[in-house]
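Schema walk-through. Below, the input block comes first and the output block second. Nothing else is stored per chain. Lengths vary across the set, and this one has 572 residues.
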Amino acid sequence: MCGIAGVLGAADEAKAAALIAPLAHRGPDGIRVEAVGKTALAHARLSIIDLEHGWQPLHAAGSTVVGNGEIYNYLELIEEFGLKDRLSTGSDFEPLLHLYALEGEKAFDRLRGMYAFCLVGGDGRTWLVRDRFGIKPLYWRREADGRVLFSSELRNLKEPAPRLAPRRVEQLLALNYTIDPGVAHQASIFEGVARLPPGCNLLVTPEGVEPHRPVPPALAPPSDAQDAVTLVDKVLEDSVRVHQRSDVPYGVFLSGGVDSSIVAALMARLNARPVTAFTCGFDAPSARDERAAAEKVARALDLDWRETVFDQADFWRIAPLVAAALDDPTTDYAALPTYKLAEAAKGTLKVVLTGEGGDEIFAGYGRYRRGLRPRWMGGRPAEPRVDAPFLKDGGRAALQAWRRAVPDLPGASRLTRMQMADIHTWLPNDLLLKLDRCLMAHGLEGRTPFLDSAVATLIGLPDDLKVRDGYGKWILRKWLERHCPAADPWAKKKGFTVPVADWIAPRAADLGPRIAAVRGVAEACDSDAVRRVFADEKGAPYRWRLMFYALWWTVHVGGATAAEAAEAVGLQ
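--- output ---
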C-alpha cells in the first residue's frame, strides 16, 4: 500500500512533488517523482513486495505505472502469459505493464486485488483505474488549463480556501458518509474534487474523460448446503492465501465474530508459525467487549494474540486524530477502535488482514432479514434510517440521494438487491474508507479477503444458504461449525458499539455551545437544535456526529491541526 499523485497533461514535477508531500504517511519508506512525457507521476512507498527493486514509477513494455495497493494474482499472471523472462523486478505491478502491451484495457479485467493506479500507456492513452469494490481510494480534479490532478487522498486536491458541497455535508450528517451516483466521477465533499467510482477505468484525454466499466465476474451457480460449504472453504482459503503474499510481517485483526474468526482460522491453517492477532476491547460498563470471544478463538487456533484496550482517555485523545486522518469524512465511530488497533499493531506488523465485506457478500446484517419479512411482521426496507433533527430538512434529501445511488438489478432476488445496495454505497464510502485512512495513518496495509473477485461470485449462492432459520451468513456459520467451533458460530450477532454517548454525556453541557459556534456546524445545521442536542439527554444519539463534524471542519476547512481543533471544540 502506498500513496500516489500526479499531473496529467503537463510534466510538472514540482506540482507532483507538492501533491505527494502530504501523503508521506502512506509511504514512509520513501518518495519518488518523475516526468513521463506530458505527465508527472509521484509515489510514496510502503514497501511490501520486492523491497529492493519495487520502487515506482515502474517502466516496462513502453508503459509506466504508479499504483497503490496490491495485485494479488501477479504470480499467476506471470505464469499464464509467460512473462518471467521479461521482468526486471519482482513487483506485483510490473506484470500489468506487459499485459497492457499485449491486450490494452482488457488487461485491467484480469486483475485480482485492491488497487488504484495511473497507467501511461505506450499506445498514447492514460488511465486512472480503481478496483471493483473501491478498497483503495483515488481522487481527481480538472484544472482550468485542462490538466488533470490525481491523488490517493482528498486533502491535497482541495482549493487553498476550500468550499464544501452543502448536499454532501447533509449526507455526512444524515447517513454517516457521502455518496454520489456519478458514472465518470462521484462528487466529493469538496467542490471541484471527484472520487473515481469503484470499478471504473477512466480514460483521460486532452478533451476530457471517458469512463469504462470492467466486465463483472460470473456469479456462483446454485449449490446445496454440503457442496456450498466445500465451495466456500476452497474459495476463501485461496483468497486468504493470496492476500498473505508479502515480504514483510503480516497478521490479523480479530474481533471473535464470524468474519474475522474465519480469516484467522484460514491463516492458522496456511501458516506454520502462530499468526499474530490484535483485538481491541472497551473499558466501559455499557460497551460490548469482544475480548473474551476473541481470546477463545485465539487459543483454539494457537494464535499469537495481543489485546489492546480503548478507554475514555483514548476517546478524547483519538477523536481529533481520526477527524484529521479522515480527510474524506465518515462519522462512523468504529473508526476510533480501528485507529487504536493500527496504533497498537504498528511496529509489529506491516500488513493486516481484516473481515470487512463478509456481511455484504454473505448477507450478515439484521436489516436484510427485516427486509425479507412482510410489513405486518415488522419488516421494513433495508435502507438507512435517517434521523437528523438538527438538519433543516431532517436528512430527507440525503435519503433520496442514497436511493438514486442504488443500482437497478433486474432479475436479482430481493436479498441480493439489498446486498448490492450496501456494496455500492456504505461499503466503499464508510467501511473501506475508514479502514484505509486509519491504517495508513500508521503506515499499515489493510487487506480484505472477503472482498476478492473470486469470493464475490458467492453473492450468487441461493438466498437460503445466506439467510436461514433467523441467521445471516448461514453458510459461513456452517463453515465455522466444522472448522472453528470455538468461534461459537450460532451465537446471535450482538452488533458493534463504541460507548461514545456515555463518554460525551458528562461534558455535553460544556461542549454544546462550542460545537454550535463552529462556523461549519452553524452553516449546515440549525444552531438552536444543535444546542438542544447537547442540553437534552434525548439528544445523546446525535452528539458524536456533531462533535466529529466540528473537529473535521476545523481541521480540513479551518486549517487547524488536530490538537488545535481539539482545543477549539473544547476537548482539551
